[in-house]
């Protein structure tokens, strides 16, 4: 299990995360939701060790080094110029000292032109390639920042099934998404981040309340403003 305890992080004088605690168990899917700027990506980066200048602790409770056993899907995957999709996959495997195998089985699902330069892929294809680079490796944990964003409908459905299978094999998966329906369909627990703090936690039994809670707590005032700006017919 990965345990984040009392994590706080600032960028310069700007506090972004305050006293965040969260656990990621193996064999579970944990969704992280929150408004734009709530601090989700920053939290994932602290967890993966891309930011080291935070207060609090992030530990794998059996003592495993987190980065070595965790795959990260960044919000916006970046690829070096003049590297084909296939070369990128080979590079990611070699960088972790793994043998380069056959990608065809996985690529039958995602159907990428692996011999084309990755930087010339569309946004959705780039997301697929970054996912493929994780799927061809064995990880104990996966951290996925907006994995559904940009994927076509088929790929979204496939990814949901793949994530369920990985969970079944014991992988612990932490993912962010703005698609509440996908998260509640998939996850075992949800954490709501607001202004850099954990506002709520839900287990699957309580998912029926999530949407209403979010509307009540965060959006009621905004909905009223929409109604003021766009009055219903007859109220103009
Ligand atoms: N490198 C940085 N330097 C300064 N401020 C940053 C940096 N990265 C993020 N921030 C700030 O930290 C806050 C949280 O950003 P973060 O990207 O973690 O939000 P998020 O919840 O992932 O948002 P989104 O849903 O839009 O992806 C924002 O106010 C953002 O401007």
UniProtKB/TrEMBL annotation:
Q: Name one GO molecular function term.
A: ATP binding
Q: Which residues form the ABC transporter domain?
A: 2-220
Origin: domain of life: Bacteria
Q: Which InterPro entries match?
A: AAA+_ATPase, ABC_transporter-like_ATP-bd, ABC_transporter-like_CS, ABC_Transporter_VariousFunc, P-loop_NTPase
The residues the entry assigns to the signal sequence are: none
Q: Which UniProt keywords apply?
A: ATP-binding, Nucleotide-binding, Transport
The name this protein goes by in its record: ATP-binding cassette domain-containing protein
The record lists the organism as Hymenobacter yonginensis
């Amino acid at each position: 299990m990965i345990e984040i305890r009392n994590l706080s992080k600032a960028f310069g004088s700007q506090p972004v995360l305050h006293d965040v605690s969260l656990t990621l168990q193996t064999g579970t899917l944990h969704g992280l939701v929150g408004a734009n700027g709530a601090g989700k990506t920053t939290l994932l980066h602290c967890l993966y060790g891309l930011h080291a200048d935070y207060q609090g602790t992030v530990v794998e409770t059996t003592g495993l080094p987190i980065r070595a056993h965790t795959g990260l899907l960044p919000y916006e995957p970046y690829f070096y110029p003049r590297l084909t999709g296939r070369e990128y996959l080979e590079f990611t495997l070699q960088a972790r000292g793994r043998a380069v195998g056959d990608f065809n089985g996985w690529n039958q699902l995602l159907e990428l032109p692996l011999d084309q330069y990755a930087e010339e892929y569309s946004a959705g294809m780039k997301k697929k390639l970054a996912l493929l680079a994780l799927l061809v490796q064995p990880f104990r944990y996966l951290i996925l920042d907006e994995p559904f964003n940009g994927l076509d409908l088929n790929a979204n459905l496939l990814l949901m099934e793949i994530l369920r299978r990985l969970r079944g094999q014991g992988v612990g998966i932490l993912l962010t998404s703005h698609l509440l329906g996908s998260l509640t369909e998939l996850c075992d627990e949800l954490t709501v981040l607001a202004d850099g703090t954990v506002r709520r936690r839900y287990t699957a039994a309580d998912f029926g309340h999530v949407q209403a809670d979010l509307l009540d707590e965060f959006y009621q005032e905004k909905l009223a403003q929409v109604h003021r700006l766009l009055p219903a017919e007859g109220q103009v």
